[in-house]
Amino acid sequence: MLDIPMAGKTGGTDESLEDVAYRVIADRVIMLGIRPNASINETQLSKEMQMGRTPIRAALKRLENDHLIVSHARKGAFAAPVDLADLEEISEVRQALEPVAAGLAARKARPDALETFEKYSGVIRGLEAATVDQSDLMRLDLAVHQLIYRAAGNSHMEEILIRYANLWTRIQGVMLERRPLILQHIVELDGVIQAILGKDEAKAAALMAGHVSGFSSYISAT
User: Fold this and answer.
1) What is the CA 68 to chain-centroid distance, rounded?
2) Which of 19-28, 92-101, 121-130 has the lowest mean pLDDT?
3) How crowded is residue 13: how many other Cβ atoms within 10 Å of its Cβ?
4) Beta carbons within 8 Å of 65's beta carbon, 6+ residues apart
5) Which residues have CB under 8 Å from 38's CB, separation 6+?
6) Nearest to 60 by CA among 88, 25, 97
7) For 106-161, what is each residue's pLDDT tens digit?
């Protein structure tokens, strides 16, 4: 498993039980640890996370707003289905906004974000096809994109892009279960990172545009 640097709050004394539940359940749904359409067992989650059901229910409500969970009266909560028809629309949003976020990150990234970008660059440059699996690459891809959104310094754009990146990752995971995630797609992100570190706004945006559109085409062809 890759040692992926953390970008932002992923635990700590100021994190509520609801936040913990949200983070853990979201990760399972996004990374397909909880399969699409699978029932969400609140009692089991309560035991696993050693917390009451109230914060879990609150987290599930937030995840429903994120379109990761669906609820049915008298049946409970389920991981949202993956609808491949959503692929094109999600791709359109990402192709429009991801280059903007990368450009803003190059202009506005703070020192702590730049330090984490350096760490991600090191991880990417050390990747070896024989020693990483698809889930590692998907998690790394999502983490780098999330750091870019945060470094862009626009909370409204960050919220939109996180939501669509999470939905995209689920679709990607389902579609690539019988086809490996190409390592080159992840390696491309190092070019974006270097442009951000070099404060080259135009280059960061252009490289991100090519990165997103190229992989959208790859996914669509699967």
Assistant:
1) 12
2) 121-130
3) 4
4) none
5) 78, 79
6) 25
7) 999 999 999 999 999 999 999 886 677 888 888 999 999 999 999 999 999 999 99
Provide the sign of the torsion angle of the four alpha carbons 90, 96, 100, 102, taken in this order.
positive
DSSP 39: B
Give the separation between CA 94 and CA 179, rounded to whole angstroms: 22
Tokens at 58, concatenated: 């609150």
Helix segments in the chain, DSSP class H: 17-30, 42-49, 53-65, 87-108, 111-125, 134-151, 155-175, 183-197, 201-220
Considering Cα of 168, then 173, then 174, then 176, what sign does the dihedral take?
positive
Return the closest-CA partner of residue 2 out of 119, 88, 147. 119
**Where does the pLDDT of residue 181 fall: very low under 50, low under 70, confident under 90, or very high at 90 and above?**
low
Amino acid letter, 50: Q
CA–CA separation, 136 vs 147, rounded Å? 17
Structure tokens at 149: 């959104």
Q: Which residues pair with 69 in a beta bridge?
A: 79
Collapse the DSSP code of 11 into the 3-class scheme (helix H, G, I; strand E, B; otherwise coil) and give the result. Answer: coil
Phi, psi of 182 (to 5 degrees): -70, 130
Please report the DSSP string for 164-208 in residue order.
Answer: HHHHHHHHHHHHTTTSPPPHHHHHHHHHHHHHHHTT-HHHHHHHH
In terms of residues, how long is the chain? Answer: 222
End-to-end CA distance of the chain: 26
Q: Is the model's pLDDT at 4 over the cut of 80?
A: no
β-bridge pairing 69-72 and 76-79: antiparallel
- The position carrying tokens 């399969």 is 35
